[in-house]
Description:
By secondary structure, this protein is α/β, with parallel strands linked by helices. The protein has helices spanning 8-24, 40-48, 59-68, 85-91, 100-112, 137-145, 169-186, 201-205, 220-224, 339-346; strands spanning 3-7, 28-32, 53-56, 73-76, 94-97, 117-122, 150-156, 192-196, 215-218, 226-227, 232-233, 242-255, 281-287, 299-301, 307-311, 316-319, 332-337, 352-356. The protein is built from 10 helices and 18 strands.
Amino acid sequence: MAFIELDRKKLKTNFDLLDERFQKRDIDWGIVVKMLCGNELFIQEVLNLGIREIHDSRISNLRVVKSLDPKVQTVYIKPPAKRSIKDVVTYADVSFNTEYITIKMLSEEAMRQNKTHKIIIMIELGDLREGVMGEAFVDFYREVFKLPNISVVGIGANLNCLYGVMPSEDKYIQLSLYRELIKAYFDVEIEWISGGTSVVLPMFFKNQLPPAVNHFRIGEALYFGLNIEEQNTFEGMHNDVFKLRTEIIELTEKPMLPVGQLAENPSGEMLEIDESLYGKTSLRAIIDVGLLDISPDYLIPDDEDIEVVGASSDMLILNLGSSEKDYKVGDLISFKLKYMGALAIMNSNYIEKRLIN
Length: 357
C-alpha cells in the first residue's frame, strides 16, 4: 500500500533555519499549510514547531487549525467568496482582500459576531492574479478605512503565482511606497508589508529586499527547501521532508512497445512509436499509485536509474531495466515530490499519511 511520510526532524531543521533568519531581521512570518489539505496529524506537527501564525486558502482547513490550537492566528490567503463570509470571520483572524463589497460584508458579519476582523489589502504588482490596481489604491483604502469592525493590518502582493513574474527590488520598493501613501494621506501606520513568499527568499537571503517588507508567508521553502530562482536546494535545508513510498504489485520482463492496433488511451494520449525499440524488452514494475493520486511529472525517484514509463488511473508503470537493485514484488519504491505532486497526494483519500523521526 502506498503512503506518504513527513519527516519531523527534517521539517524542524528547515523551520529553525528560516525562523533564525527572520528573527535576525525582526520579520513576522506564518506557515502556509494548504498543501497539508487539513490533515490533523501533519498540521499538529507544524503547530508543534512553535509558529504562532498559520495561513491557508481553505476555510475547512483553518477550522481544523482552530480546533487544534484556538490561540494561533489564522490567515485566509485569498479574497473571500460571498457565500463563505460567515465562516471566514469565524475561523480566520485575518483575510486577504481586493474588493470593497467583500470587505463591507466582512464588516457586517464581524459586527454580528462582535469581532474585529483584520485584513491585508493585496496590491497588483504585475503577475495579474489578485490585487487592487495601484492607481485606485488610495481611494480604495479611504472607503475601507470607514468600515466598522475592520482593521487594515497590512498591504501585500503576490508574484510568480500565475504568469511567473519574478520579484525584484523595484517592485517591493513600489509596494513599500503604498504604506507611505497611507501615512501621508490618513496619518495611519500599517503594521505589515506582506510581500514575502518562498519565491522572495533568494532576495531576502542576499539582503536585496527593502527593509520595509516585514511579513512573510512560507510554504514551499519550508517543506522542500526549494530555491525557486535557481531551482536547487537552499544550503542547510532538506528537499525531502515529504517522501512517497509505493509498493511493487507486478514485476515482469515485457516488450518495450505495445502490440496491436493503437488508439487514444483514456487520458487522450496517442503513443508515438520509437521504431528503435522493436524487439527490445525491459524489466517493468507496476506500483500502487496512479493519475487519481498524482501526475508522474511531479515524481522524482530516489533510485535515479528508474524511468517512469506512464500511468493509468490507479497504477503507474516503471522501467527498472538499468537499476542495479534487486527489486521484488512487495518492495517499496520511494520518491521525492515536487510541490504540486505533494499537494495532489495529500488531497488523495487513498494514500495513508505517516510520521517518522
